């Protein structure tokens, strides 16, 4: 079913969090692991405006339906960050605009080059690049939806659950738009399918991994996606992406989180590494034997003129 952009626009509101009982967090605080994860989530939500900046230099800005969605998407994501920050502050965690500024400044040169790279690549490719953008958005929103579900499950805190269900409800509408757009665009163009498959396989990583230190991404992935329950979410997202035209079999989430030591793909990654090392060792063996043979080969040592011939071993 096509996404109803008019309904989305007319019903877009800031997430409600002024009725949350914050005293409940003082009586029963969240775990340190949950707070560390919430900080990561808040940083990602607050960085949405920077993602939007990069998207608007691509052909996506030419489609009024896409820009209508992005306008409200950025607005809702901003308030998600504000809501999570309120929970952090109750726990004594610094959560203000100074921190957000630090996160943005920490991106360095890569942040300044990002819109340039996006503009050059996307505008050379043209309209088919929008399919990459939409597919990327779909997997990110599915990941966010799963992350909030796992946070609620792990902490089992009534007030946190009340807030995150509201956030999750808005994320559901976001992923519906991205998934609908991605499917339509991939169905229409073989070039879009090939381009998107290549880009997702080569460049996609877990949400937040481009703006957070690797250790933080690893911690959050282990907290949210570790264990049997986490595996279910990983496999569910990959199945959703399999349903996209031209993207079947990529196992994007499985492979991406395995790089951080999380999920069912870890064992496969280790086996692949062992296989690769075994292959390298086997390939190097003949050269090693050649070098060893050269080092132990008898070497002729010339004798002074008029003397008999002899050989010496090096």
Structure in words:
The radius of gyration is 27 Å and the shape is globular. Helix content is 73%, strand content 2%. Strands 1-2 form a two-stranded antiparallel ribbon. The chain has 2 domains: 12-263, Ribonucleotide Reductase, subunit A (Orthogonal Bundle), CATH 1.10.620; 264-299. The longest helix is centred in the last third of the chain and has 32 residues, at 265-296. With 314 residues, it is mainly alpha-helical. The chain starts with a helix and ends with a strand. Helix 3 (32-46) packs antiparallel against helix 5 (64-90), helix 8 (129-155) runs antiparallel to helix 9 and helix 9 crosses helix 10. It is built from 14 helices and 2 strands; from the N terminus they run H-H-H-H-H-H-H-H-H-H-H-H-H-H-E-E. Residues 309-314 have low confidence and may be disordered. This is Ferritin-like domain-containing protein. GO terms for molecular function: oxidoreductase activity.
Taken in chain order, the helices and strands follow as HHHHHHHHHHHHHHEE
Q: Over all CA atoms, what is the radius of gyration?
A: 27 Å
CATH topology of the largest domain: Ribonucleotide Reductase, subunit A
Work out the helicity level: over 70%
CATH architecture of the largest domain: Orthogonal Bundle
Sheet of most strands: 2 strands, antiparallel
- Our count of domains comes out at 2
Terminal CA distance: 80 Å
Question: Structural class, from helix and strand content?
Answer: mainly alpha
* Overall average residue pLDDT: 91
Number of E-state strands = 2
Query: What's the overall geometry?
Result: globular
Strand order of the largest sheet: 1-2
Report the CATH superfamily of the largest domain.
Ribonucleotide Reductase, subunit A
Oligomer: single chain
CATH class of the largest domain: Mainly Alpha
The unreliable regions are 309-314
Percentage of β-strand residues? under 5%
What count of helical segments does DSSP give?
14
Protein name: Ferritin-like domain-containing protein
GO molecular function, one term: oxidoreductase activity
InterPro entries: Ferritin-like_SF, RNR-like
Organism: Actinocatenispora rupis
């Amino acid at each position: 079913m096509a996404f109803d952009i008019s309904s989305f626009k007319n019903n877009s509101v800031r997430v409600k969090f002024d009725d949350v009982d914050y005293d409940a967090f003082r009586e029963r605080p969240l775990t340190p692991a949950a707070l560390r994860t919430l900080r990561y989530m808040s940083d990602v939500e607050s960085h949405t405006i920077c993602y939007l900046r990069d998207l608007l230099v691509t052909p996506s800005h030419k489609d009024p339906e896409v820009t209508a969605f992005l306008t409200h998407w950025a607005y809702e994501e901003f308030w998600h960050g504000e809501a999570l920050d309120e929970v952090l502050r109750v726990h004594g965690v610094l959560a203000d605009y100074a921190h957000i500024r630090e996160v943005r400044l920490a991106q360095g040169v890569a942040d300044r080059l990002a819109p340039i790279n996006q503009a050059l690549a996307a505008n050379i490719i043209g309209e088919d690049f929008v399919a990459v953008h939409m597919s990327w958005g779909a997997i990110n929103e599915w990941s966010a939806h799963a992350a909030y579900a796992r946070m609620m499950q792990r902490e089992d805190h009534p007030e946190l659950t009340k807030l995150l269900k509201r956030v999750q409800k808005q994320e559901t509408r976001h992923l519906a738009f991205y998934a609908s757009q991605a499917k339509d665009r991939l169905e229409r163009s073989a070039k879009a399918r090939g381009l998107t498959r290549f880009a997702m396989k080569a460049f996609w990583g877990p949400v937040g991994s481009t703006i957070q230190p690797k250790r933080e991404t690893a911690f959050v992935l282990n907290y949210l996606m570790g264990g049997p329950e986490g595996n279910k979410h990983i496999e569910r997202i990959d199945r959703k992406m399999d349903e996209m035209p031209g993207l079947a079999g990529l196992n994007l989430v499985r492979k991406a989180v395995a790089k951080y030591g999380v999920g069912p793909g870890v064992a496969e990654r280790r086996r692949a590494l062992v296989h690769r090392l075994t292959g390298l060792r086997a390939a190097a063996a003949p050269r090693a034997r050649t070098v060893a043979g050269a080092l132990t080969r008898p070497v002729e040592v010339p004798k002074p003129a008029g003397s008999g011939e002899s050989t010496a071993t090096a």
